């Protein structure tokens, strides 16, 4: 592949796809970036949109704006419906002319799954898109509005009960943020009831929340959540969701938690494109639908097709599957960009991909977070500052970083939230 002849098609403008594309700026390659949306979404902060802390524009960047300076870059808004590995082209929905490629990058991420209970989606939205976040925001804020006019104490109690299903970082962050809204942000704003009567349940089906952290950090997270008024229920399996709440099973016994708002923060599956690629190449996909790739992140049998990010089944040096994290996707994207640049200049290819784990972190509330940075364990305010710094650095545009920093600073000192809007989009 030469600089003038290489046609690179990148499907997905997430962390991995953009890392590849940005790494090829100025390389001479002809790059086409395809995504269903015209923007890159910073998913780790979606929960802040869902709880009114940030507006969607704070965490989204128009893709075209990132490549305006290189005429060899093209951005196509559309959904890929077919990939022909032999003919080397992809087809978009509603179009008849395929888009050819010499090198293909597929990085379309994951979507929410309900483990065969797809009917729960209407009752308990997940959190993967801006639309999801706005839906959750509307449901959460509308619950407090309903409680203001509700005269039946039992119905008001249900309106003021929130259940977050899933004790991973997203669930912990959502539960903490909802509790903060109730106990601090809305204080003194309602006349018929006290928002501090709100109950927030965090429901985790396995034995512990935040299983990727060590016990000390998990204990600190439980303590911080309890201070916010969140009831953490572990070994609590959700067996049904209705308009009135959730049914859970604990030690073989079922009980019903009446809740007016339920949010789904567990269960993901790879993009359908992963299974499409697996079937086309005769490659195995795992139970989450992720396609197994080679050590250099290519589709087995196709050294010109790379599968990255959440839809790729990759392993660390110990043979353990890499987690679906933005840091994994970013490192993979940067790695593939280096590989392609080496091919363009006939330089030796880099060694097989190796993920460098720089740590994980989760925020629980105002000035409260946990972080494990390669053995350095941080909690409380210091952990929160670390979390804030890392997320600001990862945001794509300087404008977004500045706006988010101003918003967070204002929210820190006032405990208020800029974007507490109930909109029709929810």
Task: Give the second-level CATH assignment, the architecture of one domain.
Answer: 3-Layer(bba) Sandwich
User: In CATH's first tier, which class of one domain applies?
Assistant: Alpha Beta
Described by the principal axes of the CA atoms, the overall outline is globular
CATH level-3 fold name of one domain: FAD/NAD(P)-binding domain
**Secondary-structure class:** alpha/beta
Short summary:
With about 425 residues, this protein is α/β, with parallel strands linked by helices. The chain has helices at about 15-25, 45-50, 65, 130-150, 155-160, 170-185, 215-225, 270-280, 325-345, 380-395, 400-415; strands at about 5-10, 30-35, 40, 60, 75, 80-85, 90, 100, 105, 110, 160-165, 200-205, 230-235, 235-240, 245-250, 255-260, 260-265, 270, 290, 300, 300-305, 310-315, 360-365, 370-375, 375-380. Among the domains are: about 5-35 and about 80-110 and about 270-345, 3-Layer(bba) Sandwich (FAD/NAD(P)-binding domain); about 120-265, 3-Layer(bba) Sandwich (FAD/NAD(P)-binding domain).
């Amino acid at each position: 592949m030469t600089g003038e002849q290489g046609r690179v098609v990148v499907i997905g403008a997430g962390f991995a796809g953009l890392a590849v594309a940005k790494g090829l700026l100025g390389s001479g390659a002809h790059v086409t970036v395809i995504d269903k949306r015209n923007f890159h979404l910073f998913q780790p902060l979606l929960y802040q949109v869902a709880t009114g802390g940030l507006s969607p524009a704070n965490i989204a960047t128009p893709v075209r704006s990132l490549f305006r300076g290189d005429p060899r870059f093209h951005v196509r808004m559309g959904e890929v419906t077919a990939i022909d590995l032999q003919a080397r082209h992809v087809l978009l929905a509603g179009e008849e002319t395929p888009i050819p490629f010499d090198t293909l990058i597929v990085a379309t991420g994951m979507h929410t799954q309900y483990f065969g209970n797809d009917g729960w989606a209407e009752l308990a939205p997940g959190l993967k898109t801006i639309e999801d976040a706005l839906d959750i925001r509307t449901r959460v804020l509308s619950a407090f509005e309903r409680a203001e006019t509700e005269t039946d104490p039992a119905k008001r109690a249900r309106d003021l009960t929130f259940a977050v299903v899933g004790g991973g970082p997203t669930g912990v962050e959502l539960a903490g943020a909802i509790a903060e809204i109730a106990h601090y942000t809305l204080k003194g704003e309602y006349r018929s009831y006290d928002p501090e009567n709100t109950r927030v349940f965090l429901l985790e089906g396995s034995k512990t929340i935040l299983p990727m952290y060590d016990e000390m950090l998990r204990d600190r997270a439980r303590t911080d959540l309890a201070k916010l008024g969140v009831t953490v229920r572990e070994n609590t399996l959700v067996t049904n969701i209705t308009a009135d709440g959730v049914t859970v099973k604990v030690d073989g016994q079922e009980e019903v938690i009446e809740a007016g708002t339920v949010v789904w923060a567990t269960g993901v599956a790879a993009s359908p494109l992963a299974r499409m690629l697996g079937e086309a190449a005769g490659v195995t996909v795992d139970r989450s639908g992720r396609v197994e790739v080679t050590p250099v992140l290519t589709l087995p049998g196709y050294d010109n097709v790379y599968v990255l990010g959440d839809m790729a089944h990759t392993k660390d040096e110990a043979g353990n599957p890499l987690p679906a994290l933005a840091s994994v996707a970013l490192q993979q994207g940067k790695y593939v960009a280096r590989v392609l640049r080496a091919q363009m200049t006939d330089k030796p290819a880099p060694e097989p991909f190796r993920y460098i784990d720089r740590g994980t972190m989760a925020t629980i509330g105002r000035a409260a977070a946990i972080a494990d940075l390669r053995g350095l364990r941080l909690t409380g305010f210091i952990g929160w500052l670390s979390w804030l710094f890392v997320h600001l650095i990862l945001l794509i545009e300087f404008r977004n970083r500045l706006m988010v920093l101003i918003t967070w600073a204002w929210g820190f000192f006032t405990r208020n939230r800029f974007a507490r809007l109930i909109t029709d989009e929810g």
